[in-house]
Amino acid sequence: MNKESTFRKQVRRIYHLLMVLFGLFVVTGGSLIYYVNNPGAFDFKAKSEIASITPVEDEDRIENGIHVRTGLIDSEGLMVVVNNCTNCHSAKLVTQNRMTKEGWNTTIKWMQETQNLWDLGGNQEIIVNYLVTNYPPKAKGRRMTLTDIEWYELED
Amino acid sequence: MKRRDFVKKGTLSSIAALIGTEVVFGSNMLKGYTPLALQDPDPFKLFNKHKDMVVLNDKPWNIESQAHLLDDNITPNASMFIRNNGLVPEDIDAKNWTLTIDGESVKNKKTYTLQELKSKFEQHTYQLTIECGGNGRAEFNPPAKGNQWTVGAVHCASWTGVRLRDVLQDAGIRNNAVYIGFHAVDKHLSLDPNKEPISRGCPMSKALQDETLLAFKMNGKDIPLIHGYPLRLVAGGWPASVSGKWVNRISIRNKVHDGTKMTGTAYRVPCEPVAPGAKVKDEDMCIIESMPVKSLITYPKSGAIIKKGKSLNIRGHAWAGELEVTKVEYSIDFGSTWKDCKLEAPANRLAWQHFSASVDLPKLGYYEVWARATDTKGNAQPMVLPGWNPKGYLNNACHRIAVKVS
């Protein structure tokens, strides 16, 4: 009887010890995993970070008819152009060029063949219409008149 | 998930999406640190450029100079145009940089460290004119596709390095060698690791010239990153695209090099002249070699107003690809009459030459001063645009500045 109860006590003690060890293991392991993923979590100085998040301003703001972020003219098809044509290169490559419908289509084909541009599907027409409407060729002749001259007094 | 953690994870993954690669140890990144690739780009600070330089494109970076910024005899970094086909490499490790010479026509494939190149081969310094093949593209009619360079995609800096010839010969050149092609570490815009943004080259005859360098110094200092640090191939007088930046491999080819931007319409013009706007098949396009004769009035800046009775001192530079310039003239009457400028000999072959003149403007009013250079073969710059070509290369029309007498 005595022997049996001692044995039971010991078993219970070992059981409790194991539970405590397991609990410790779960807590340390868990916090370790959490820390690896969130190294700043125990850095109490960093708390102010939450307050420092500023609201994101409208990244597709239009000012004076220009899409501010890209410099593209605000017109039908603008966002399709922004989403398809400014991933790999800057919009500046678009706005400094002027082409006919055929020219823009050829350029798209060239980008698809050599530059990993995806199939534009129905968006191609929207994009090309936007481009020929807003960035058509201008006749320049064999030599243009000098323009945008900034006049200044030359001292010597 | 806490909002903060979410924001942080979101930032890291969007950084990864933006720069196309996972940010290794991203979770250890210092708070408030923005990776170089994402910093709000002020190209003028980033590349130490003059504030009057003109940004044509910010992805990839393409920035041009202006005539009046190119007044120095040896172009300083601040005024040198920037041309990129791909993304500027980061984390260049010059200490462990190597150059490999390989290809079908190399006798022994060899790899050199930068230090070996510097110590094993004799070093040379040359002033070399490098002009973008598309300099002047903006003027073509009908317009040509690409960065719309006006006049500023040219410079003549002083380059120090070893002769490409010496290195190629050390590795050994087989008799069937035709061309060299460079390979570099810049990244393709699509971030596709199997694509090279540019891999051009030149025929063996150009590769073996005295002035064709594997350069590690520009104007006496390490080459700035944007201009090719730590090693740049420099081939003066040819389209600047031959002067590969960040070069780590040169292949000696048994055929015309077929790397990116060697084929199709890139850096090619119609073999036979065509009418403006004509369609030209790829097989009828020929690779541009030497650049044509050209000049630039670098002083004064266009728009000068001078007092009546005062003469106007002008100056500038003239160059002619593989050739030398024999004459530079100016006209104040739209080409009716021309007068000679004083012209200096080049510092070395393929360096631009300096010209100057004292110009008398007889009456009050508006003038244009036009400059025209002539090369050793008698080719002069045209006053109107030269032959139209689909990609808008080789515009060597006369440069002019506006002047008023008041």
Automatic annotation (TrEMBL), chain A:
The chain crosses the membrane at residues 14-36. Keywords: Membrane, Transmembrane, Transmembrane helix. GO terms for molecular function: electron transfer activity; heme binding. Signal peptide: none annotated. SUPFAM superfamilies: Cytochrome c (SSF46626). It comes from the Bacteria. This is Monoheme cytochrome C.
Automatic annotation (TrEMBL), chain B:
Its cofactor is Mo-molybdopterin. Residues 287-405 form the Moybdenum cofactor oxidoreductase dimerisation domain. The keyword Metal-binding applies. Residues 87-259 form the Oxidoreductase molybdopterin-binding domain. GO terms for molecular function: heme binding; molybdenum ion binding; molybdopterin cofactor binding; sulfite oxidase activity. GO terms for biological process: sulfur compound metabolic process. Pfam families: Mo-co_dimer, Oxidored_molyb. This is Molybdopterin containing oxidoreductase. It comes from Winogradskyella aurantia. InterPro entries: Ig_E-set, MoCF_OxRdtse_dimer, Mopterin_OxRdtase_euk, OxRdtase_Mopterin-bd_dom, OxRdtase_Mopterin-bd_sf. Keywords: Metal-binding, Molybdenum, Oxidoreductase.
